[in-house]
Amino acid sequence: MRETLVELKNVRKQFLASKKFMEEKKYVKAINGVSFEIYKGETLAIVGESGCGKSTTGRAINKLIDIDEGEVWFDHENITNYSSHMMKPVRSKMQMVFQDPYGSLNPRMKIRDIVSEPLLVHTNLSKKERYQKAKELLEIVGLNEGHLRRYAHEFSGGQRQRIGIARALTVNPKLIIADEPVSALDVSIQAQVINLFKELQREFHLTYLFISHDLSVVEHISDRIGVMYLGHLVEITAKEQLYKNPLHPYTQALLSAIPIADPAKKKKRIILKGDIPNPIDLPVGCPFNTRCMHVQDKCYKIVPQLQEAASGHKVACHLI
Amino acid sequence: MSIKLLEVKNLTTEFKTDKKSLTAVKNVSFYVNQGEVVGLVGESGSGKSVTSLSVLRLLPENGYISEGEVLLSQNNILNLDQKSIRNIRGSEIAMIFQDPMSSLNPVIKVGEQLMECTMLHLKHTKKEAKAHAIEMIKQVGISAPEDVFNRYPHQLSGGMSQRIMIAMALSCNPKVLIADEPTTALDVTIQAQVLDLITEMKEQSNIGVLLITHDLGVVAEMCDRVIVMYCGRIVESAEVSCLFENPLHPYTQGLIASVPKIGSGSDILPYIKGRVPDLSQMPIGCKFAPRCDGAIEKCFIEEPLLIQLDNQRQCRCHLVSERGERNA
Question: Which UniProt keywords are listed (chain A) (predicted)?
Fold first, then answer.
Protein backbone atom coordinates (compact mmCIF):
# COMPACT_ATOMS: atom_id res chain seq x y z
CA MET A 1 0.00 0.00 0.00
CA ARG A 2 1.35 3.36 -0.92
CA GLU A 3 1.78 6.01 1.71
CA THR A 4 -0.79 8.79 1.74
CA LEU A 5 0.46 12.38 1.89
CA VAL A 6 -2.79 14.32 1.65
CA GLU A 7 -6.29 13.17 2.36
CA LEU A 8 -9.52 15.07 1.95
CA LYS A 9 -12.58 13.65 3.68
CA ASN A 10 -15.97 14.86 2.53
CA VAL A 11 -14.87 18.49 2.22
CA ARG A 12 -17.48 21.18 1.69
CA LYS A 13 -17.05 24.90 1.11
CA GLN A 14 -19.52 27.58 0.21
CA PHE A 15 -19.02 31.28 -0.33
CA LEU A 16 -21.54 33.98 0.47
CA ALA A 17 -22.83 35.30 -2.84
CA SER A 18 -25.40 37.90 -1.88
CA LYS A 19 -26.72 39.26 1.34
CA LYS A 20 -29.75 41.46 0.99
CA PHE A 21 -31.81 42.86 3.82
CA MET A 22 -34.76 40.64 4.74
CA GLU A 23 -33.80 38.17 2.04
CA GLU A 24 -32.46 34.71 2.34
CA LYS A 25 -28.68 34.61 2.01
CA LYS A 26 -27.39 33.00 -1.16
CA TYR A 27 -24.32 30.81 -1.26
CA VAL A 28 -22.08 29.66 -4.07
CA LYS A 29 -21.51 25.98 -3.39
CA ALA A 30 -17.91 25.65 -4.47
CA ILE A 31 -17.03 22.17 -3.19
CA ASN A 32 -19.72 19.67 -2.26
CA GLY A 33 -18.37 16.69 -0.41
CA VAL A 34 -15.06 15.96 -2.10
CA SER A 35 -12.89 13.09 -0.84
CA PHE A 36 -9.63 11.86 -2.30
CA GLU A 37 -6.07 10.97 -1.36
CA ILE A 38 -2.75 12.04 -2.82
CA TYR A 39 -0.05 9.40 -2.44
CA LYS A 40 3.58 10.21 -1.81
CA GLY A 41 5.61 10.78 -4.96
CA GLU A 42 2.70 10.76 -7.37
CA THR A 43 1.12 13.46 -9.50
CA LEU A 44 -2.59 13.79 -9.06
CA ALA A 45 -4.26 16.03 -11.61
CA ILE A 46 -7.59 17.67 -10.92
CA VAL A 47 -9.36 18.56 -14.14
CA GLY A 48 -12.54 20.47 -14.77
CA GLU A 49 -14.06 23.50 -16.42
CA SER A 50 -14.23 26.97 -14.94
CA GLY A 51 -16.28 27.09 -11.77
CA CYS A 52 -16.00 23.40 -10.96
CA GLY A 53 -14.18 24.02 -7.69
CA LYS A 54 -10.75 22.73 -8.67
CA SER A 55 -8.87 25.82 -7.47
CA THR A 56 -10.89 25.97 -4.26
CA THR A 57 -9.93 22.35 -3.62
CA GLY A 58 -6.26 23.25 -4.00
CA ARG A 59 -6.65 26.16 -1.64
CA ALA A 60 -8.47 24.00 0.90
CA ILE A 61 -5.39 21.77 1.15
CA ASN A 62 -2.94 24.50 2.08
CA LYS A 63 -5.64 26.30 4.01
CA LEU A 64 -5.61 29.53 2.03
CA ILE A 65 -9.34 29.14 2.66
CA ASP A 66 -11.06 27.54 5.63
CA ILE A 67 -13.45 24.75 4.81
CA ASP A 68 -16.98 24.49 6.21
CA GLU A 69 -17.21 20.75 6.67
CA GLY A 70 -15.00 17.73 6.37
CA GLU A 71 -11.37 17.05 7.19
CA VAL A 72 -8.01 17.79 5.63
CA TRP A 73 -5.09 15.54 6.52
CA PHE A 74 -1.50 16.28 5.59
CA ASP A 75 1.38 13.97 6.41
CA HIS A 76 -0.63 12.10 9.08
CA GLU A 77 -1.76 15.32 10.76
CA ASN A 78 -5.32 16.56 10.82
CA ILE A 79 -4.80 20.19 9.83
CA THR A 80 -8.49 21.05 9.46
CA ASN A 81 -8.63 23.31 12.48
CA TYR A 82 -5.05 24.57 12.56
CA SER A 83 -4.62 28.28 13.21
CA SER A 84 -2.42 30.26 10.86
CA HIS A 85 0.32 30.14 13.48
CA MET A 86 0.16 26.36 13.62
CA MET A 87 0.04 26.20 9.82
CA LYS A 88 3.38 27.95 9.39
CA PRO A 89 5.62 24.88 9.75
CA VAL A 90 3.14 22.82 7.72
CA ARG A 91 3.11 25.37 4.90
CA SER A 92 6.84 25.06 4.41
CA LYS A 93 6.14 21.48 3.35
CA MET A 94 3.53 22.48 0.79
CA GLN A 95 4.21 25.21 -1.71
CA MET A 96 2.15 26.65 -4.48
CA VAL A 97 2.79 27.62 -8.11
CA PHE A 98 0.17 29.94 -9.53
CA GLN A 99 -1.42 30.36 -12.92
CA ASP A 100 -0.55 33.91 -13.76
CA PRO A 101 3.22 34.32 -13.95
CA TYR A 102 2.73 38.08 -14.30
CA GLY A 103 0.58 38.60 -11.24
CA SER A 104 2.38 36.29 -8.86
CA LEU A 105 5.79 37.97 -8.80
CA ASN A 106 6.20 41.29 -6.99
CA PRO A 107 7.22 43.84 -9.65
CA ARG A 108 9.27 45.87 -7.16
CA MET A 109 11.44 43.05 -5.89
CA LYS A 110 14.58 41.65 -7.42
CA ILE A 111 14.45 38.01 -8.46
CA ARG A 112 16.91 36.92 -5.77
CA ASP A 113 14.68 38.47 -3.11
CA ILE A 114 11.55 36.88 -4.57
CA VAL A 115 13.13 33.44 -4.72
CA SER A 116 14.75 33.62 -1.30
CA GLU A 117 11.76 35.09 0.54
CA PRO A 118 10.35 31.72 1.70
CA LEU A 119 13.73 31.10 3.40
CA LEU A 120 13.39 34.36 5.29
CA VAL A 121 10.00 33.24 6.57
CA HIS A 122 10.74 29.61 7.33
CA THR A 123 14.45 29.41 8.21
CA ASN A 124 17.18 31.27 10.12
CA LEU A 125 19.66 31.37 7.26
CA SER A 126 21.79 34.49 6.80
CA LYS A 127 21.30 36.75 3.82
CA LYS A 128 24.37 35.37 2.11
CA GLU A 129 23.20 31.78 2.54
CA ARG A 130 19.75 32.67 1.26
CA TYR A 131 21.14 34.28 -1.89
CA GLN A 132 23.43 31.31 -2.41
CA LYS A 133 20.43 28.98 -2.26
CA ALA A 134 18.47 31.25 -4.65
CA LYS A 135 21.34 31.06 -7.10
CA GLU A 136 21.45 27.28 -6.95
CA LEU A 137 17.71 27.00 -7.50
CA LEU A 138 17.67 29.39 -10.45
CA GLU A 139 20.29 27.20 -12.07
CA ILE A 140 18.19 24.12 -11.44
CA VAL A 141 15.18 25.65 -13.20
CA GLY A 142 17.28 26.74 -16.17
CA LEU A 143 18.02 30.38 -15.42
CA ASN A 144 21.46 31.75 -14.50
CA GLU A 145 23.30 33.93 -12.03
CA GLY A 146 22.94 37.01 -14.21
CA HIS A 147 19.19 36.91 -13.67
CA LEU A 148 19.45 37.31 -9.89
CA ARG A 149 19.51 41.08 -9.80
CA ARG A 150 16.80 41.68 -12.36
CA TYR A 151 13.15 42.53 -11.89
CA ALA A 152 10.17 40.42 -12.93
CA HIS A 153 9.16 42.62 -15.88
CA GLU A 154 12.41 41.78 -17.64
CA PHE A 155 11.36 38.15 -18.06
CA SER A 156 9.07 36.36 -20.48
CA GLY A 157 6.07 34.34 -19.31
CA GLY A 158 7.92 31.04 -19.43
CA GLN A 159 10.88 32.41 -17.49
CA ARG A 160 8.60 33.90 -14.85
CA GLN A 161 6.93 30.56 -14.36
CA ARG A 162 10.41 29.06 -13.84
CA ILE A 163 11.06 31.70 -11.17
CA GLY A 164 7.76 30.80 -9.51
CA ILE A 165 8.81 27.16 -9.49
CA ALA A 166 12.24 28.01 -8.04
CA ARG A 167 10.55 29.98 -5.26
CA ALA A 168 8.32 27.01 -4.45
CA LEU A 169 11.37 24.73 -4.19
CA THR A 170 13.44 26.84 -1.77
CA VAL A 171 12.06 25.30 1.41
CA ASN A 172 12.31 21.67 0.22
CA PRO A 173 8.56 21.07 0.15
CA LYS A 174 6.98 17.63 -0.01
CA LEU A 175 3.93 18.75 -1.93
CA ILE A 176 3.62 21.31 -4.70
CA ILE A 177 0.17 22.54 -5.58
CA ALA A 178 0.32 23.87 -9.12
CA ASP A 179 -2.80 25.78 -10.13
CA GLU A 180 -2.98 25.95 -13.95
CA PRO A 181 0.78 26.53 -14.14
CA VAL A 182 1.05 26.37 -17.93
CA SER A 183 -2.25 27.69 -19.22
CA ALA A 184 -0.97 31.25 -19.69
CA LEU A 185 1.98 30.07 -21.79
CA ASP A 186 2.43 29.49 -25.52
CA VAL A 187 2.53 25.90 -26.75
CA SER A 188 6.26 25.74 -27.37
CA ILE A 189 7.00 27.21 -23.92
CA GLN A 190 4.32 25.08 -22.27
CA ALA A 191 6.19 21.94 -23.27
CA GLN A 192 9.42 23.29 -21.72
CA VAL A 193 7.73 23.97 -18.39
CA ILE A 194 5.94 20.61 -18.26
CA ASN A 195 9.25 18.85 -18.86
CA LEU A 196 10.82 20.92 -16.08
CA PHE A 197 8.08 19.82 -13.67
CA LYS A 198 8.81 16.21 -14.51
CA GLU A 199 12.58 16.54 -14.07
CA LEU A 200 12.19 18.23 -10.70
CA GLN A 201 9.82 15.54 -9.50
CA ARG A 202 12.40 12.86 -10.25
CA GLU A 203 15.23 14.84 -8.68
CA PHE A 204 13.53 16.01 -5.48
CA HIS A 205 10.93 13.22 -5.01
CA LEU A 206 8.10 15.74 -5.08
CA THR A 207 4.40 15.09 -4.91
CA TYR A 208 2.26 17.24 -7.18
CA LEU A 209 -1.32 18.31 -7.17
CA PHE A 210 -1.68 19.60 -10.68
CA ILE A 211 -4.82 21.64 -11.30
CA SER A 212 -5.74 22.17 -14.94
CA HIS A 213 -8.63 22.61 -17.35
CA ASP A 214 -6.78 20.87 -20.16
CA LEU A 215 -6.93 17.09 -20.32
CA SER A 216 -4.24 16.91 -22.98
CA VAL A 217 -1.67 18.79 -20.88
CA VAL A 218 -2.43 16.64 -17.87
CA GLU A 219 -1.72 13.40 -19.71
CA HIS A 220 1.99 14.13 -19.84
CA ILE A 221 2.45 14.87 -16.20
CA SER A 222 -0.04 12.93 -14.10
CA ASP A 223 -0.23 9.45 -12.63
CA ARG A 224 -3.84 9.71 -11.58
CA ILE A 225 -6.57 12.10 -12.71
CA GLY A 226 -9.66 13.34 -10.91
CA VAL A 227 -12.45 15.03 -12.88
CA MET A 228 -14.57 17.64 -11.12
CA TYR A 229 -17.92 19.05 -12.12
CA LEU A 230 -19.87 21.67 -10.14
CA GLY A 231 -17.99 21.04 -6.93
CA HIS A 232 -18.30 17.26 -7.12
CA LEU A 233 -15.55 14.80 -7.88
CA VAL A 234 -17.24 12.71 -10.58
CA GLU A 235 -14.46 10.34 -11.55
CA ILE A 236 -10.97 9.52 -10.32
CA THR A 237 -8.64 6.89 -11.65
CA ALA A 238 -5.22 6.10 -13.08
CA LYS A 239 -4.33 8.12 -16.15
CA GLU A 240 -4.33 5.18 -18.58
CA GLN A 241 -7.77 4.09 -17.39
CA LEU A 242 -9.26 7.55 -17.75
CA TYR A 243 -8.20 7.98 -21.36
CA LYS A 244 -8.90 4.41 -22.40
CA ASN A 245 -12.08 3.78 -20.53
CA PRO A 246 -13.78 6.93 -19.23
CA LEU A 247 -16.93 5.89 -17.38
CA HIS A 248 -18.68 9.09 -16.37
CA PRO A 249 -20.68 10.70 -19.22
CA TYR A 250 -19.11 14.06 -18.38
CA THR A 251 -15.57 12.70 -18.68
CA GLN A 252 -16.53 11.13 -22.01
CA ALA A 253 -17.86 14.45 -23.32
CA LEU A 254 -14.85 16.36 -21.99
CA LEU A 255 -12.45 13.99 -23.73
CA SER A 256 -14.31 14.10 -27.01
CA ALA A 257 -14.54 17.91 -26.98
CA ILE A 258 -10.76 18.35 -27.15
CA PRO A 259 -9.75 19.40 -30.66
CA ILE A 260 -7.07 17.03 -31.92
CA ALA A 261 -4.14 18.47 -33.86
CA ASP A 262 -4.43 15.89 -36.60
CA PRO A 263 -6.85 16.45 -39.47
CA ALA A 264 -6.72 12.77 -40.43
CA LYS A 265 -8.45 11.91 -37.16
CA LYS A 266 -11.75 13.71 -37.65
CA LYS A 267 -14.05 12.12 -35.14
CA LYS A 268 -17.58 12.34 -33.98
CA ARG A 269 -17.74 14.72 -31.07
CA ILE A 270 -20.15 14.49 -28.21
CA ILE A 271 -21.53 18.01 -28.07
CA LEU A 272 -22.99 18.78 -24.68
CA LYS A 273 -26.13 20.83 -24.63
CA GLY A 274 -26.34 24.01 -22.61
CA ASP A 275 -24.09 25.58 -20.05
CA ILE A 276 -22.82 24.64 -16.63
CA PRO A 277 -25.61 25.36 -14.12
CA ASN A 278 -25.20 28.20 -11.67
CA PRO A 279 -23.42 26.94 -8.55
CA ILE A 280 -25.81 29.01 -6.42
CA ASP A 281 -28.80 26.84 -7.43
CA LEU A 282 -27.39 23.38 -7.88
CA PRO A 283 -29.59 20.88 -9.71
CA VAL A 284 -31.35 18.44 -7.40
CA GLY A 285 -29.85 14.97 -7.71
CA CYS A 286 -26.88 14.40 -9.97
CA PRO A 287 -25.12 17.72 -10.73
CA PHE A 288 -24.70 16.69 -14.37
CA ASN A 289 -28.38 15.83 -14.97
CA THR A 290 -29.10 19.04 -16.95
CA ARG A 291 -26.61 18.15 -19.68
CA CYS A 292 -26.34 14.37 -19.55
CA MET A 293 -27.64 12.39 -22.52
CA HIS A 294 -28.25 9.18 -20.58
CA VAL A 295 -30.25 10.81 -17.81
CA GLN A 296 -32.82 8.69 -15.93
CA ASP A 297 -35.51 9.40 -13.31
CA LYS A 298 -33.21 8.45 -10.50
CA CYS A 299 -30.67 11.09 -11.55
CA TYR A 300 -33.12 13.88 -10.71
CA LYS A 301 -33.64 12.61 -7.16
CA ILE A 302 -30.50 11.17 -5.62
CA VAL A 303 -26.97 12.53 -5.71
CA PRO A 304 -24.75 9.66 -6.89
CA GLN A 305 -21.89 8.78 -4.57
CA LEU A 306 -18.32 8.13 -5.64
CA GLN A 307 -18.05 4.34 -5.85
CA GLU A 308 -15.38 1.94 -6.92
CA ALA A 309 -16.25 0.64 -10.40
CA ALA A 310 -12.99 -1.23 -10.89
CA SER A 311 -9.82 -1.44 -8.86
CA GLY A 312 -8.71 2.13 -8.22
CA HIS A 313 -11.35 3.52 -10.57
CA LYS A 314 -14.04 5.50 -8.78
CA VAL A 315 -17.08 7.03 -10.48
CA ALA A 316 -20.09 8.96 -9.23
CA CYS A 317 -22.85 7.97 -11.63
CA HIS A 318 -26.09 6.01 -11.22
CA LEU A 319 -25.66 4.31 -14.58
CA ILE A 320 -22.44 2.55 -13.69
CA MET B 1 -12.87 28.33 -59.65
CA SER B 2 -13.78 29.71 -56.30
CA ILE B 3 -14.10 33.42 -55.72
CA LYS B 4 -11.44 35.30 -53.80
CA LEU B 5 -13.35 37.34 -51.26
CA LEU B 6 -10.48 38.82 -49.33
CA GLU B 7 -6.98 39.26 -50.57
CA VAL B 8 -4.11 40.76 -48.63
CA LYS B 9 -1.02 41.74 -50.63
CA ASN B 10 2.37 42.57 -49.13
CA LEU B 11 0.92 43.97 -45.96
CA THR B 12 3.45 45.64 -43.68
CA THR B 13 2.29 47.16 -40.41
CA GLU B 14 4.51 49.22 -38.14
CA PHE B 15 4.18 50.72 -34.71
CA LYS B 16 5.69 54.06 -33.73
CA THR B 17 7.45 54.09 -30.41
CA ASP B 18 9.55 56.74 -28.69
CA LYS B 19 12.76 55.79 -30.40
CA LYS B 20 11.97 54.05 -33.63
CA SER B 21 9.22 52.27 -35.46
CA LEU B 22 8.84 48.54 -34.96
CA THR B 23 7.64 46.24 -37.69
CA ALA B 24 4.93 43.98 -36.32
CA VAL B 25 3.84 42.49 -39.64
CA LYS B 26 6.05 42.29 -42.70
CA ASN B 27 5.13 41.48 -46.29
CA VAL B 28 2.18 39.30 -45.49
CA SER B 29 0.11 38.09 -48.42
CA PHE B 30 -2.80 35.68 -48.35
CA TYR B 31 -6.35 35.26 -49.56
CA VAL B 32 -9.64 33.84 -48.36
CA ASN B 33 -12.01 32.17 -50.83
CA GLN B 34 -15.75 31.87 -50.61
CA GLY B 35 -16.85 29.02 -48.36
CA GLU B 36 -13.35 28.49 -47.03
CA VAL B 37 -11.90 28.59 -43.54
CA VAL B 38 -8.34 29.87 -43.48
CA GLY B 39 -6.41 29.51 -40.26
CA LEU B 40 -3.81 32.01 -39.13
CA VAL B 41 -1.64 30.34 -36.51
CA GLY B 42 1.15 31.60 -34.33
CA GLU B 43 2.21 32.20 -30.78
CA SER B 44 1.76 35.45 -28.94
CA GLY B 45 3.73 38.20 -30.63
CA SER B 46 3.66 36.54 -34.03
CA GLY B 47 1.58 39.33 -35.54
CA LYS B 48 -1.58 37.37 -36.22
CA SER B 49 -3.90 39.76 -34.43
CA VAL B 50 -2.18 42.83 -35.88
CA THR B 51 -2.77 41.34 -39.32
CA SER B 52 -6.49 41.03 -38.68
CA LEU B 53 -6.73 44.52 -37.18
CA SER B 54 -4.88 45.90 -40.21
CA VAL B 55 -7.42 44.29 -42.53
CA LEU B 56 -10.24 46.09 -40.73
CA ARG B 57 -8.13 49.19 -40.18
CA LEU B 58 -8.73 49.05 -36.46
CA LEU B 59 -5.09 49.54 -35.46
CA PRO B 60 -4.34 51.55 -32.33
CA GLU B 61 -3.22 55.13 -32.82
CA ASN B 62 0.51 54.48 -33.00
CA GLY B 63 0.10 51.70 -35.54
CA TYR B 64 0.05 52.30 -39.28
CA ILE B 65 0.11 50.30 -42.48
CA SER B 66 3.25 51.29 -44.32
CA GLU B 67 2.82 49.11 -47.34
CA GLY B 68 0.45 46.76 -49.08
CA GLU B 69 -3.12 46.33 -50.22
CA VAL B 70 -6.21 44.78 -48.71
CA LEU B 71 -8.63 43.81 -51.44
CA LEU B 72 -12.19 43.11 -50.46
CA SER B 73 -14.09 41.90 -53.54
CA GLN B 74 -11.36 43.50 -55.69
CA ASN B 75 -11.56 46.93 -54.00
CA ASN B 76 -8.58 48.17 -52.05
CA ILE B 77 -10.06 49.19 -48.71
CA LEU B 78 -6.87 50.86 -47.57
CA ASN B 79 -7.66 53.82 -49.83
CA LEU B 80 -11.11 54.43 -48.41
CA ASP B 81 -11.90 57.31 -46.08
CA GLN B 82 -13.13 56.74 -42.53
CA LYS B 83 -16.80 57.00 -43.49
CA SER B 84 -16.66 54.43 -46.26
CA ILE B 85 -14.63 51.99 -44.21
CA ARG B 86 -17.22 52.27 -41.48
CA ASN B 87 -19.89 51.26 -43.97
CA ILE B 88 -17.89 48.19 -44.86
CA ARG B 89 -17.17 47.04 -41.33
CA GLY B 90 -20.07 44.95 -40.16
CA SER B 91 -21.80 44.79 -43.51
CA GLU B 92 -19.14 43.35 -45.82
CA ILE B 93 -16.59 42.12 -43.32
CA ALA B 94 -17.27 41.33 -39.69
CA MET B 95 -15.17 40.35 -36.74
CA ILE B 96 -15.53 38.24 -33.61
CA PHE B 97 -13.12 39.00 -30.80
CA GLN B 98 -11.50 36.82 -28.21
CA ASP B 99 -13.19 38.04 -25.09
CA PRO B 100 -16.96 38.03 -25.56
CA MET B 101 -17.56 39.51 -22.12
CA SER B 102 -15.72 42.72 -22.80
CA SER B 103 -16.77 43.05 -26.44
CA LEU B 104 -20.39 43.71 -25.54
CA ASN B 105 -21.50 47.00 -24.03
CA PRO B 106 -22.43 46.22 -20.43
CA VAL B 107 -25.10 48.92 -20.08
CA ILE B 108 -27.11 48.21 -23.22
CA LYS B 109 -29.45 45.25 -23.58
CA VAL B 110 -28.18 42.47 -25.82
CA GLY B 111 -31.09 42.84 -28.23
CA GLU B 112 -30.56 46.54 -28.75
CA GLN B 113 -26.90 45.95 -29.50
CA LEU B 114 -27.95 43.44 -32.13
CA MET B 115 -30.46 45.86 -33.68
CA GLU B 116 -27.90 48.63 -34.03
CA CYS B 117 -26.04 46.83 -36.78
CA THR B 118 -28.98 46.16 -39.10
CA MET B 119 -30.52 49.59 -38.52
CA LEU B 120 -27.25 51.18 -39.57
CA HIS B 121 -26.26 49.01 -42.50
CA LEU B 122 -29.50 47.55 -43.83
CA LYS B 123 -31.59 50.64 -42.94
CA HIS B 124 -34.06 48.50 -41.03
CA THR B 125 -36.81 50.16 -39.06
CA LYS B 126 -36.89 49.47 -35.34
CA LYS B 127 -39.58 46.84 -35.77
CA GLU B 128 -37.78 45.04 -38.59
CA ALA B 129 -34.52 45.19 -36.71
CA LYS B 130 -36.07 43.64 -33.63
CA ALA B 131 -37.62 40.80 -35.61
CA HIS B 132 -34.29 40.22 -37.35
CA ALA B 133 -32.37 40.30 -34.08
CA ILE B 134 -34.65 37.70 -32.51
CA GLU B 135 -34.33 35.57 -35.63
CA MET B 136 -30.53 35.79 -35.40
CA ILE B 137 -30.54 34.85 -31.71
CA LYS B 138 -32.62 31.82 -32.61
CA GLN B 139 -30.25 30.91 -35.43
CA VAL B 140 -27.21 30.77 -33.17
CA GLY B 141 -28.93 28.12 -31.13
CA ILE B 142 -30.22 30.00 -28.11
CA SER B 143 -33.55 28.79 -26.79
CA ALA B 144 -35.98 31.47 -25.57
CA PRO B 145 -34.64 34.24 -27.88
CA GLU B 146 -37.18 36.84 -26.69
CA ASP B 147 -35.95 36.38 -23.16
CA VAL B 148 -32.29 36.73 -24.11
CA PHE B 149 -33.12 39.78 -26.25
CA ASN B 150 -34.05 41.69 -23.10
CA ARG B 151 -31.05 40.71 -21.02
CA TYR B 152 -27.86 42.57 -20.23
CA PRO B 153 -24.48 41.03 -21.13
CA HIS B 154 -23.57 40.24 -17.51
CA GLN B 155 -26.60 37.97 -17.31
CA LEU B 156 -25.18 35.72 -20.03
CA SER B 157 -22.54 33.03 -19.70
CA GLY B 158 -19.32 33.15 -21.74
CA GLY B 159 -20.61 30.69 -24.33
CA MET B 160 -23.90 32.59 -24.72
CA SER B 161 -22.11 35.94 -25.12
CA GLN B 162 -19.92 34.46 -27.83
CA ARG B 163 -23.06 33.19 -29.59
CA ILE B 164 -24.48 36.72 -29.41
CA MET B 165 -21.22 38.06 -30.87
CA ILE B 166 -21.53 35.60 -33.75
CA ALA B 167 -25.17 36.58 -34.26
CA MET B 168 -24.13 40.23 -34.34
CA ALA B 169 -21.27 39.60 -36.75
CA LEU B 170 -23.52 37.71 -39.16
CA SER B 171 -26.66 39.83 -38.90
CA CYS B 172 -25.84 41.97 -41.94
CA ASN B 173 -24.79 39.02 -44.11
CA PRO B 174 -21.10 39.85 -44.41
CA LYS B 175 -18.97 38.11 -47.03
CA VAL B 176 -15.99 37.62 -44.80
CA LEU B 177 -15.85 36.80 -41.11
CA ILE B 178 -12.67 37.34 -39.12
CA ALA B 179 -12.65 35.35 -35.89
CA ASP B 180 -9.80 36.31 -33.58
CA GLU B 181 -9.30 33.52 -31.01
CA PRO B 182 -13.08 33.06 -30.79
CA THR B 183 -12.95 30.18 -28.32
CA THR B 184 -9.81 30.84 -26.29
CA ALA B 185 -11.74 32.25 -23.35
CA LEU B 186 -14.24 29.38 -23.31
CA ASP B 187 -14.27 25.96 -21.69
CA VAL B 188 -13.67 22.91 -23.90
CA THR B 189 -17.25 21.68 -23.95
CA ILE B 190 -18.48 25.19 -24.79
CA GLN B 191 -15.66 25.59 -27.33
CA ALA B 192 -16.94 22.52 -29.14
CA GLN B 193 -20.41 24.08 -29.31
CA VAL B 194 -19.14 27.41 -30.65
CA LEU B 195 -16.84 25.85 -33.26
CA ASP B 196 -19.76 23.75 -34.46
CA LEU B 197 -21.87 26.88 -34.74
CA ILE B 198 -19.24 28.75 -36.78
CA THR B 199 -18.98 25.82 -39.22
CA GLU B 200 -22.75 25.62 -39.51
CA MET B 201 -23.12 29.35 -40.15
CA LYS B 202 -20.35 29.24 -42.73
CA GLU B 203 -22.07 26.49 -44.64
CA GLN B 204 -25.43 28.21 -44.45
CA SER B 205 -24.35 31.57 -45.81
CA ASN B 206 -21.26 30.50 -47.76
CA ILE B 207 -18.96 33.11 -46.31
CA GLY B 208 -15.19 33.07 -46.08
CA VAL B 209 -13.73 32.76 -42.60
CA LEU B 210 -10.32 33.88 -41.38
CA LEU B 211 -9.77 32.04 -38.12
CA ILE B 212 -6.98 33.35 -35.93
CA THR B 213 -5.85 30.99 -33.22
CA HIS B 214 -2.89 29.62 -31.33
CA ASP B 215 -4.53 26.23 -30.91
CA LEU B 216 -3.41 23.72 -33.51
CA GLY B 217 -6.20 21.38 -32.45
CA VAL B 218 -8.80 23.96 -33.46
CA VAL B 219 -6.98 24.49 -36.76
CA ALA B 220 -6.92 20.79 -37.58
CA GLU B 221 -10.64 20.47 -37.01
CA MET B 222 -11.85 23.69 -38.61
CA CYS B 223 -9.60 24.91 -41.40
CA ASP B 224 -9.12 24.17 -45.09
CA ARG B 225 -5.85 26.04 -45.41
CA VAL B 226 -3.39 27.19 -42.76
CA ILE B 227 -0.94 30.07 -42.61
CA VAL B 228 1.76 29.86 -39.93
CA MET B 229 3.23 33.13 -38.72
CA TYR B 230 6.36 33.77 -36.71
CA CYS B 231 7.71 37.20 -35.76
CA GLY B 232 5.35 39.00 -38.13
CA ARG B 233 6.22 36.91 -41.15
CA ILE B 234 4.48 34.04 -42.88
CA VAL B 235 6.83 31.09 -42.47
CA GLU B 236 4.68 28.43 -44.05
CA SER B 237 1.28 28.03 -45.65
CA ALA B 238 -0.36 24.87 -46.86
CA GLU B 239 -3.55 22.85 -47.04
CA VAL B 240 -4.42 21.61 -43.61
CA SER B 241 -3.77 17.91 -44.22
CA CYS B 242 -0.42 18.61 -45.92
CA LEU B 243 0.70 20.82 -43.07
CA PHE B 244 0.03 18.28 -40.37
CA GLU B 245 1.29 15.29 -42.36
CA ASN B 246 4.44 16.91 -43.63
CA PRO B 247 5.34 20.19 -41.98
CA LEU B 248 8.34 21.70 -43.80
CA HIS B 249 9.43 24.68 -41.74
CA PRO B 250 11.34 23.79 -38.55
CA TYR B 251 9.09 26.12 -36.56
CA THR B 252 5.93 24.41 -37.79
CA GLN B 253 7.50 21.05 -37.03
CA GLY B 254 8.38 22.14 -33.51
CA LEU B 255 4.97 23.66 -32.94
CA ILE B 256 3.12 20.52 -34.03
CA ALA B 257 5.44 18.30 -32.00
CA SER B 258 5.07 20.32 -28.81
CA VAL B 259 1.28 20.08 -28.69
CA PRO B 260 0.43 17.63 -25.91
CA LYS B 261 -1.33 14.69 -27.54
CA ILE B 262 -3.59 12.29 -25.74
CA GLY B 263 -2.49 8.71 -26.07
CA SER B 264 1.03 9.45 -27.27
CA GLY B 265 2.41 7.75 -24.18
CA SER B 266 5.66 9.67 -24.48
CA ASP B 267 7.33 10.77 -21.30
CA ILE B 268 9.17 13.88 -22.39
CA LEU B 269 7.37 16.41 -24.54
CA PRO B 270 9.33 17.69 -27.53
CA TYR B 271 9.76 21.45 -27.31
CA ILE B 272 11.28 24.44 -29.10
CA LYS B 273 14.25 25.83 -27.21
CA GLY B 274 14.53 29.52 -26.32
CA ARG B 275 11.74 32.02 -26.79
CA VAL B 276 10.20 34.42 -29.28
CA PRO B 277 12.58 37.37 -29.79
CA ASP B 278 11.55 40.86 -28.80
CA LEU B 279 10.24 43.08 -31.62
CA SER B 280 13.00 45.62 -31.01
CA GLN B 281 15.78 43.03 -31.00
CA MET B 282 15.06 40.93 -34.05
CA PRO B 283 17.83 38.64 -35.28
CA ILE B 284 19.35 39.69 -38.60
CA GLY B 285 18.91 36.61 -40.74
CA CYS B 286 16.12 34.10 -40.38
CA LYS B 287 14.03 35.14 -37.38
CA PHE B 288 13.77 31.55 -36.22
CA ALA B 289 17.49 30.74 -36.55
CA PRO B 290 18.40 31.19 -32.84
CA ARG B 291 15.79 28.57 -31.88
CA CYS B 292 16.30 26.26 -34.86
CA ASP B 293 18.22 23.01 -34.44
CA GLY B 294 19.12 22.74 -38.11
CA ALA B 295 20.30 26.34 -38.56
CA ILE B 296 23.31 26.76 -40.87
CA GLU B 297 25.61 29.76 -41.22
CA LYS B 298 23.51 31.28 -43.97
CA CYS B 299 20.47 31.40 -41.67
CA PHE B 300 22.14 33.93 -39.38
CA ILE B 301 23.17 36.25 -42.18
CA GLU B 302 20.44 36.32 -44.76
CA GLU B 303 16.71 36.25 -44.28
CA PRO B 304 15.12 33.52 -46.41
CA LEU B 305 12.38 34.36 -48.88
CA LEU B 306 8.92 32.88 -48.87
CA ILE B 307 9.19 30.33 -51.68
CA GLN B 308 6.19 29.02 -53.56
CA LEU B 309 6.71 25.26 -53.59
CA ASP B 310 3.57 24.25 -55.39
CA ASN B 311 0.07 25.51 -55.92
CA GLN B 312 -0.98 25.72 -52.28
CA ARG B 313 2.32 25.53 -50.48
CA GLN B 314 4.76 28.21 -49.39
CA CYS B 315 7.70 27.98 -47.04
CA ARG B 316 10.30 30.46 -45.77
CA CYS B 317 13.41 28.46 -44.96
CA HIS B 318 16.93 28.17 -46.42
CA LEU B 319 17.09 24.48 -45.59
CA VAL B 320 13.88 23.66 -47.43
CA SER B 321 14.67 25.72 -50.52
CA GLU B 322 18.17 24.24 -50.77
CA ARG B 323 16.82 20.75 -50.46
CA GLY B 324 14.35 21.63 -53.23
CA GLU B 325 17.11 22.87 -55.53
CA ARG B 326 19.18 19.77 -54.97
CA ASN B 327 16.26 17.56 -55.87
CA ALA B 328 15.47 19.54 -59.02
Answer: ATP-binding, Nucleotide-binding, Transport
